């Protein structure tokens, strides 16, 4: 088990389209373990492999409330099969855009197919926070960030702030 470094805006790797997993082997399982360790330590409720610089279609998630038992979930090659017309709005954040939060409107419910850690095909119908988080993570696998769903004015403002901070810390 190892903690991995979470990459942050404006790291261009966040814009990569991640590759599907062919077989759930020991290497994938080791990456998933590291992703959970990294996600819990951050702390975050979800993590896409690209956030630890691995461009594979792997997502870890735990939506358990603080003080409740852990509820680790893994979604490999997740795909949205259906999304509702009805939308919902959540205040989102992202470990790759630290300390920035904004309301995002997305489909309220989604049906997602994925592969589990045993390599078995699964489907889930999600609403609420799970629906939001699955869409946020599947976006990451496609190089999309939650700031792509907010106004251009707000997006440009946050991009500029992170570009400045990156410049300051590399100079
Ligand atoms: O920790 C996280 N919280 C969160 C809150 C609202 C909507 C989505 C998220 S996901 C985020 C972790 C992260 O960046 N996952 O990619
Ligand atoms: Ni994120």
Structural account:
This protein is an alpha+beta fold. The protein has a single domain (12-170), classed as Peptide deformylase (Peptide Deformylase, Alpha-Beta Complex). It is 29% helix and 26% strand. The chain contains three helices and seven strands, in the order αβββββββαα. Strands 1-2-3-6-7 form a five-stranded antiparallel sheet. Strand 6 and strand 7 (121-127) form a beta hairpin. The mean pLDDT is 97. The structure holds ligand GNR and nickel (II) ion.
- Within the largest sheet, what's the order of strands? 1-2-3-6-7
Q: What is the fold named in CATH at topology level?
A: Peptide Deformylase
How many distinct domains? 1
Rg calculated over all Cα atoms: 16 Å
Strand % is 25-35%
Q: Give me the secondary-structure category.
A: alpha+beta
CATH level 1 class label:
Alpha Beta
Main beta-sheet strand count, sense and barrel state: 5 strands, antiparallel
Instruction: Give the N-terminus to C-terminus distance in angstroms.
Output: 33 Å
| Mean pLDDT reading | 97
Silhouette: globular
Spans of at least 5 consecutive residues whose pLDDT stays below 50 are: none
Total of helices: 3
Named at the architecture level, the CATH assignment is Alpha-Beta Complex
